[in-house]
Design brief:
The protein is α/β, with parallel strands linked by helices. The chain is built from 30 helices and 17 strands. This is Phosphoric monoester hydrolase.
């Protein structure tokens, strides 16, 4: 590649390729002998990548492999080079990821520097100086570069050629430096966006917006607000697929945000000022996309409030914090392959192609199903299985309090330890969960083993998955799922030490170790309290609903028995003759049915609000609706309440651990005492307030976020056929949670969980080996790895030993029986 040597001005390092369109041959969906396999973020995890391809039986001769980007970086360096070699040598279809882009930019920069007179010599000298500085103990390349910029005046013009915020000699630099020219050529040919017209699908690393957030949905500047204009030379196809393709191209080319490569590489949400953000605040872009697609009603629709458009689907990666995120029109495949040890594949076509109804172009715009035909959804809602709901909250806690990420920073600050630690992380994937119980109690290696040992933890989607891949057959139209994200306003753990830290953070080792200490204990107690509260909340809700339904059934049976007795009396011969004589002699005339069979007449024609009548079928529907609304309120604890809970726990942890250094030697009883001291400082009021929304407006908001946005739970019509309302259920629940009985059962559950934790430390080869003459004492730093491992396993393992243990406690069963026995509330 030739550069202008006269001006020495920096070239365009980005080398963006905006868009690539895939044909039917490049993305086959209707050929039963071919499949499309779309893989989530790989991040250089080569062994896991190969295991995933083996799991889905990838055949290069018949399968089309597609990547959603970020094929390199974050994982082991050697793995990144192996993945790059595989992808380039097979010319695998892929979009660019934000990490891929950094590698491209560094390689372009290196080519530019080497093309300048004296550039290669300067770069060689700098590399040599950095290696010698490392030998003297330097471990922060950013600090070292800043020092060189201040003191190396002789080469100041060269130092200025390093763009701001670029990290010299970091992982992206080393990948860029090590890749071949053919691999570099492959990388720069990767587009930022892929359009699959015949599948009405977009593929982008971070995402695509369906409308410009600066304007209202029906504004004429929005591509979905109007039917594309057809010119005379164009032909309108009967199946409207041509119009759909034009509209999809308009989404890509007329919405300004979609034309900015940074957006499609980094976007996570949209802020209130309508700007795009890569941070976790703001409204998730997928939620906005869903709202736009829900209004699409076809080009011929006259429905009020609808848009003249057809839906399209976005497949993306990037958002590891959301995990596997399958919704009706957006499919997120980044399941966290580095820290969560899970990689995901979406398999389309093959034998499922023959199941697609009609023309693919008109029907391919909906949900994903797994290999058994089950709908895949990653958002908890009423009706989902307990393991799935439990898994979701566990994922959020691990993401927000990512102890392993901070450990990654510490490793990068150690001489040559990042590469060795990353290799160890990759190698540890094959270890089983049982082996993680005997964690190393010295240094950082134990942390890496603890993270890697979770590679085969259940994912909540398939108990048999070893690499957590998800195979999906096809997109199915007209199936809706829950895909709303919780509002992240007040529910925040931003005050915690950084958990999703940028690897280039400038924090010192002391600050990072302090973060590890506080995060580990905070995550451990958050795990204990969140599991205990979620279990007790669900138990309470189900017990109350079961009692209400039981009483309603008893009343219904009693009413039917009364009606049966009345009918038997009325149908007797003497009574019917008596009623006939009354009618014959003119004694108060009534309708014939009411004269001879008054009970039957009353049953059929009496007003609906008569309490003596048998229950109307509509009341059953109303009760089911009320039950679903009530149970959906667990969304609050699952997505918002646990974060409020964390703030209470964090302050207690900081108070107790103040002055306790990582070198402090502790016995098993000392650790137990520290945990007890922290628990005593956690206020019960703060815990119970985290379980349920406390105002009507909050209840409505939570129900909308939980997917129940088609009715008002407090409207008179909702409770017209019932004697129990949402207010009644919430009032009783809050009263129960403020009672001394709840305090006792919660204390019992939490104490049992702590005891279970301490028992995991005992035994041969563990932190506190049994059989020692004296109680062993170990440094606090050595206790942190097994603590972090225990919380991770407790949150992800299914079935959950903590949940099973809590439900098996006599106190828990007594609490449930006490709720059940409150019949006076219903009679």
């Amino acid at each position: 590649m030739n550069w202008s040597l006269s001006s020495h001005r920096p070239p365009d390092f980005s080398l963006y390729v905006s868009l690539e369109s895939l044909s039917v041959e490049q993305f086959p969906l209707d050929d039963i002998d071919k499949r499309v396999i779309i893989v989530g973020d790989i991040h250089g995890m080569f062994e896991e990548f190969q295991a995933l391809l083996a799991k889905v039986s990838y055949n290069p001769s018949s399968d089309v492999l597609v990547s959603v980007g970020d094929i390199v970086a974050k994982g082991p360096h050697s793995g990144s080079m192996q993945v790059l070699e595989f992808m380039a040598s097979h010319n695998i279809t892929a979009v660019r990821g934000n990490h891929d882009q950094k590698v491209i930019e560094w390689r372009t920069w290196l080519e530019w520097i080497h093309s300048l007179p004296g550039g290669s010599n300067w770069l060689f000298q700098v590399q040599d100086k950095w290696e010698k500085a490392q030998e003297r103990g330097a471990d922060d390349v950013e600090e070292w570069v800043e020092e060189q910029v201040r003191h190396d005046k002789k080469h100041s013009k060269w130092w200025k050629k390093i763009p701001e915020e670029w990290q010299l000699f970091g992982d992206h630099y080393r990948i860029a430096e090590g890749m071949t020219q053919e691999q570099y050529s492959y990388m720069i040919q990767r587009p930022v966006r892929i359009h699959v017209p015949h599948a009405h699908t977009f593929i982008a690393h971070a995402g695509i917006l369906a409308s410009d957030p600066n304007y209202k949905r029906k504004d004429k500047r929005q591509p979905l607000s109007h039917i594309p204009i057809l010119y005379e030379a164009e032909t309108r196809k009967e199946d409207t697929s041509f119009l759909r393709r034009l509209q999809e191209l308009a989404i890509l080319n007329e919405i300004p945000q979609n034309l900015i490569p940074w957006v499609t590489l980094n976007m996570r949400g949209v802020l209130d000022d309508h700007t795009v953000t890569r941070k976790k605040n703001g409204t998730p872009w997928a939620q906005l996309y869903k709202k736009d697609m829900k209004h699409c009603a076809g080009f011929d629709s006259k429905k009020k409030g609808s848009l003249p458009c057809h839906p399209s689907t976005v497949v993306y990666g990037h958002a590891a914090s959301r995990g596997l995120d399958i919704n009706r029109w957006t499919i997120g495949l980044d399941s966290g392959c580095v820290y969560n040890q899970r990689m995901t594949a979406l398999v389309l076509g093959g034998k499922f192609a023959q199941q697609l109804p009609g023309t693919i172009e008109d029907e391919y715009d909906g949900e994903a199903i797994d290999i058994d035909g089950n709908i895949l959804s990653s958002r908890p809602k009423f009706g989902d299985s307990w393991p799935k709901i439990f898994y979701i909250v566990g994922e959020q806690i691990l993401e927000e309090m990512d102890v392993e990420a901070v450990i990654g920073e510490l490793q990068m600050m150690s001489n040559k330890s990042f590469l060795e630690g990353s290799e160890s992380m990759s190698a540890s994937v094959s270890s089983s969960i049982s082996s993680s119980s005997a964690l190393s109690t010295s240094g950082l290696q134990g942390w890496v083993d603890a993270a890697g040992a979770q590679a085969h933890s259940p994912t909540g989607y398939s108990s048999s998955e070893e690499t957590s891949s998800v195979t999906s057959g096809s997109f199915i139209s007209n199936i809706s799922t829950i895909e709303s994200e919780p509002n992240s306003s007040s529910a925040s753990v931003a005050s915690l030490p950084s958990t999703s830290s940028d690897p280039t953070s400038s924090r010192s080792k002391a600050q990072l170790w302090n973060s590890v200490k506080l995060l580990t204990f905070t995550r451990t107690l958050t795990t204990i309290y969140s599991i205990s509260l979620l279990t007790l909340l669900t138990l309470t809700q189900l017990t109350i609903l079961a009692r209400v339904k039981y009483i309603r059934a008893i009343k219904h049976m009693s009413s039917e028995e009364d009606q049966e007795a009345a009918l038997e009396g009325e149908l007797g011969m003497s009574n019917m003759l008596f009623m006939a004589l009354k009618a014959r002699f003119g004694i108060p005339q009534q309708p014939l049915l009411k004269t001879f069979l008054p009970s039957v007449h009353e049953l059929l024609f009496a007003p609906a609000d008569d309490e003596d009548l048998p229950e109307h079928p509509l009341s059953n529907i109303a009760f089911e609706t009320l039950s679903a609304d009530y149970l959906t309120l667990s969304y609050y604890l699952l997505h918002i309440g646990w974060k409020n809970l964390t703030t209470h726990i964090q302050s207690a942890v900081e108070e107790v651990l103040e002055g306790v250094s990582l070198k402090t030697r502790l016995s098993e009883s000392d650790v137990h005492r520290l945990l007890k001291d922290m628990m005593q400082r956690v206020a019960l009021e703060g815990l119970t307030a985290s379980m349920l929304p406390n105002t009507e407006d909050m209840v409505r908001s939570v129900l909308v976020l939980g997917g129940r946005d088609d009715h008002d739970p407090y409207s008179p019509s909702q409770g017209a056929a019932l004697s129990t309302s949402m207010d009644d259920l919430l009032s009783e629940t809050r009263t129960l949670f403020s009672s001394y009985r709840f305090t006792e059962v919660l204390d019992t559950c939490v104490d049992w969980a702590v005891d279970s934790l301490m028992k995991s430390f005992e035994g041969e080869g563990r932190v506190f080996a049994s059989g020692d003459a004296e109680a062993p004492r170990v440094r606090l730093a050595s206790i942190l790895p097994p603590l972090a491992s225990w919380s991770r396993t407790s949150l992800l393992a299914l079935p959950s030993e903590l949940v099973d243990g809590i439900l098996a406690k006599d106190e828990t069963r007594t609490f449930s029986a006490w709720i059940w026995a409150k019949f006076e509330l219903e009679v």
